[in-house]
Amino acid sequence: MSEQLDLFAGSEKIAPKTPQRMSSGVRALFFDLETQKSAHEVGGWENIHLMKLAVGVVWDSLEQQFFNYLEKDASQLAEKLRSADLVVGFNVIGFDYTVLQPYSDFDLQKIRTFDMLIDIKKKLGYRLSLDHLAQNTLKTQKSADGLVSLQWYREGKIDKIVEYCQKDVEITRDLFLYGESNGHVVYQTRSGTTQNVEVDWKTANLV
């Protein structure tokens, strides 16, 4: 996942527990991927499609488990996403699908997808990072960042990338389920105050 914004610090408060199951029986797939190359290495952000898949991770809400995919499995990852009633991600439409599209013979943009980044930006008028929302809503944070993941790829430490990507998917899942259950997520304004932003993330309304 491309995380360009990492705004503000988190709170010390303990977050409420977040359910790990959907409120309905649909198959929701929570998805994130990491790349082999940076934007700089492929000539800029307009060339996301050239970054190549390093690791992709999916959490399946029905099977209640992670599925991990390397580049050699990229077409299987695309088919897995295609099987979903709903794919949920953070910057998945603009970034993750663009990275994965060269490995697929169908249009990933046609998959029913909910992108939390897009929804939050519509409500606030600006972007917030997954890490920012996780810190303020869930009182947790990402285990690393995309630059570290790229270094791990160059060093052949694929197991570390898988672990990092799984953590991102776990945060993505828990943030969505928190919003679905509570009707809001929490962020910190530029003035430093903590506020709720109301969300309508009921699965039944998204599929």
Concise structural overview:
This protein is an alpha/beta fold and 207 residues long. Helix content is 36%, strand content 19%.
Description:
The protein is α/β, with parallel strands linked by helices and 207 residues long. The chain has one domain: Ribonuclease H-like superfamily/Ribonuclease H (Nucleotidyltransferase, domain 5), CATH 3.30.420.10. Helix content is 36%, strand content 19%. The strands form 2 sheets. Strands 3-2-1-4-5 form a 5-stranded mixed beta sheet, sandwiched between helices. The longest helix is centred in the last third of the chain and has 25 residues.
Shape: globular
Give the rounded overall mean pLDDT. 88
How many structural domains? 1
Fraction of helical residues: 25-40%
